């Protein structure tokens, strides 16, 4: 035998030697092979193939030689009908159509029967006419009686209705007839009930479309109607695709519904057991939402977690308090990612000027506050930005130009942002209220207008603005002078007096920066120089145990503008530790004796900074001035003494040796703050509130 190809699988019908070849090198054409079905039909195939031992034949195949032509969907024999069962047509040497006919006598009358089933008389699957007793003329009155019908034509595929009163053609489908063993019919019946009884005994399906409602493993609509995808028209194929998509969606939704029902049952069981009663009675809404978010997302992957708006708002509040703490909490709790929170913020549209949404929120919060808690201060400052232009798709305009809100926009490129913030005086709360884009700096006239505009809107929501806080920038100083007029310390808006305060940390930085270029004569024949501070630091670096551990070499690199702007560096250079180190090195004769004046100046500035920048009512670090103003504290005495000295301070340029006192305004800034505190204390005495230590400390 010539080589055909590699054998892949064979026909499993008993006695059949047909193989399916792969990689054929000739014109050989393989027969069509069909896998064993599943479920009940598999048992029918196993019986037809005489397989009586337990085995799973799902991967076995039967070739096309063991099926009738009527079992195929088309003439190419590529697909079987749903109820096709293999039969032995090749090995038993019978034709695909075998008919039997014989005559028999019933009640003395001669009758004839014709069988056109496709089974040989020796087949295991028989129709009624293939019983041996029928062909031996053994059909008698004891088996079956018919009086109104003369001719029976039995076939496998169809069952017809009577066509006339004398002849009835009844077609029995092969797959439902099976191997008949007994018919128990009433031999005395001679009317149409005999046929009805026969139909009840044999499971004949009179409706050829009933298979659509049958339960089978193949639930596809094409399998039920016996069609393939290749036989569908374009329109039917589109409808079939829509049907499949809808079924897939329904299946997914059904499974999701079952899961949700299981969750509801579990939660209902827990609720009925009373385990949630503690949560309802003792926890607030924030705690409940947080617990629900943890339960909902504990078993989900990071990308599958879902968050409500309340969850995101709570997480955003935590993130704004401290990003580092938020990252630590993410290790132990299920929290939204920082990217999610930033995306939430980007969806909130903020226009330049006062934000109406924030005002509405403030109004709701102010309504819950007590009268003393409504006192607040207005802070404003400018920050540097990188210039650039961006097209806003939603707003339909180009951002990046100077924008002063109600004052309009200009054609100048913005490189700074002017920000206004409201902060509580007695109660610690703060909120950004407005922002503007400026080019380098805003004019003093426009700044004065914006300050009054914002204060009026804050008064409308119920807040009482008692002070403005800013640095000593030239624009800020000019705007404050325009607001105050003849009185340099306060101004009025709607008959409410508002004092002007300069930022204390900023004053400390300006004082240190003045020492870099000038020597300060703070008393007759007493001058403070920064070179003494630098020399002490250099000597201290040579020691193993340093007196100034907070200072580093890079803190004296003033070419870096970032170092000059850090309050922490200025506070360390003008601290009590620095004054003590200078005095120590003078005693060791490392420094010249005149450096003691620098130590005295540094100690005064450190004490002044502590007295004006402390908020705690308790004394810190054993420094009596490092506490808030309270009854019996030495603050007022120290301020009154220092006010007299500040008026005589002089600044002498180091290289030019000229008096440059008028070029620096930090002395006026220190004086303004102390004078305002004196005015404030007088008002408290008039209102007899001086005994309220807590209120004064919070202020």
UniProtKB/TrEMBL annotation:
Cited SMART domains: DM3, THAP
Residue intervals of the THAP-type domain: 6-89
Keywords, ordered alphabetically: DNA-binding, Metal-binding, Zinc, Zinc-finger
InterPro entries, per database record: THAP9-like_HTH, THAP_Znf, TNP-like_GBD, TNP-like_RNaseH_N
Bilayer-spanning residue ranges: none
Superkingdom of the organism of origin: Eukaryota
Molecular-function GO terms, alphabetical: DNA binding; zinc ion binding
Zinc-finger listed as a keyword: yes
Protein name: THAP-type domain-containing protein
Organism of derivation: Zophobas morio
